[in-house]
Write a structure and sequence with these properties.
Layout (H helix, E strand, L loop, with lengths): L12 E9 L5 H14 L5 E10 L8 E8 H7 L7 H11 L4 E13 L7 E9 L2 H17 L6 E10 L7 E7 L2 H5 L1 H11 L1 H11 L7 E14 L1
Antiparallel strand pairs: 1-3, 1-4, 2-3, 2-8, 4-6, 5-7, 5-8, 6-7
């Protein structure tokens, strides 16, 4: 894999993502190569997550996504010269033999995550915003509402894209996670039930949302993925 990366330290939690296209007959080998390498090569403070893409638009043609995440200091060590040692070079060489295409790479930061638990089924939305002040207001609202009115049937995380990604115009992202696919399918009804059982939440959300100008927000891409394994 050709790894192109950039990073800054504007936020504490950082991530890097690499999306690839793999032919069906090579998927098992690619997963095995990744599992073997990261099971035997641990990076302190860095979580490595492999996702399989479930649903995506035709113009976003990738099958797997490999994500590194951690605090800024740990991520900086990950990209030190020692990162490209012999074992990594051998791993990359083997991967190149089975990867059809490097679709995109990206680097960014996380503003908020509602839960540290694993929610393997994830809906990813990337979008742009013309007004950073309005985006900050929205992020603060989302954080406050999730902390004040927690929900266990789904997780939610949001943050920014510093460079790269599935769309060149997108600068922000949201990830909604579900423990099962059934939970994903029941997402709309669960949200409705939650609002009905928590009228204070519904009222407060409406009041705070009315103070935000959403006209500058635009969804750029959306896809769904499944967590294969995490190291």
């Amino acid at each position: 894999m050709i790894l192109v990366f950039a990073f800054s330290f504007s936020q504490t939690n950082r991530w890097s993502a690499y999306a690839v296209k793999v032919a069906p007959e090579n998927e098992e080998m690619v997963v095995k190569l990744i599992d073997d390498y990261f099971s035997n090569n641990k990076y302190e403070g860095v979580t490595v997550s492999l996702y399989a893409i479930m649903f995506t638009a035709a113009d976003l043609n990738f099958t797997h996504e490999l994500i590194f995440s951690g605090e800024a200091e740990a991520m900086a060590k990950l990209y030190s010269p020692e990162f490209g040692d012999t074992s990594w070079q051998l791993f990359s060489s083997k991967m190149n033999s089975f990867v059809d295409e490097n679709v995109f790479s990206a680097n960014g930061w996380r503003f908020y995550q509602s839960s540290e638990d694993v929610y393997p089924f994830q809906m990813v939305t990337v979008y742009s915003s013309e007004d950073n002040a309005e985006l900050r207001k929205w992020r603060m609202m989302v954080r406050d509402m999730n902390e004040k009115y927690p929900r266990d049937y789904r997780s939610f995380a949001t943050g920014g894209i510093s460079v790269g990604g599935p769309d060149s115009d997108a600068t922000a992202w949201n990830v909604t996670g579900y423990k099962t696919y059934a939970d994903y399918l029941a997402g709309w009804s669960n949200n409705r039930e939650f609002r009905e059982k928590n009228p204070k939440f519904a009222k407060e959300q409406e009041e705070r949302s009315s103070e935000i100008d959403y006209s500058g927000f635009e969804q750029e891409k959306k896809f769904m993925r499944y967590l294969v394994k995490q190291w």
